[in-house]
Write a structure and sequence with these properties.
The chain has one domain. The protein contains 3 helices and no strands. The chain has helices at 5-29, 33-61, 66-94. The longest helix has 29 residues, at 33-61. The N and C termini lie far apart (43 Å).
Length: 95
Amino acid sequence: MRNLAHHILPTSATMLGVCMTVIPIIKLMKVGHVGTIIDELLADDSVIFLISALLSYLSIRRPSWGRLERHADIAFVFGLCGMSVCAVLLSFELM
């Protein structure tokens, strides 16, 4: 591929940290039922970003496993989509 794993690994780790930081903030805001849904989606996103980071790390360590970089990229995009859904849900709940 285009050596994306070197970019996916630190960004996935950062996004994992963002998800883990936002979960307690949502709990402190006491958003209600939507807050529970957002918490669960962010927890799922954390796992997706962890998988993305692990796959990108493995593709860096084992360049012959080039397919892992593509899977890491796909997982990362799914994680971003999940965070976007959380942002939309939160913004409509706070209006």
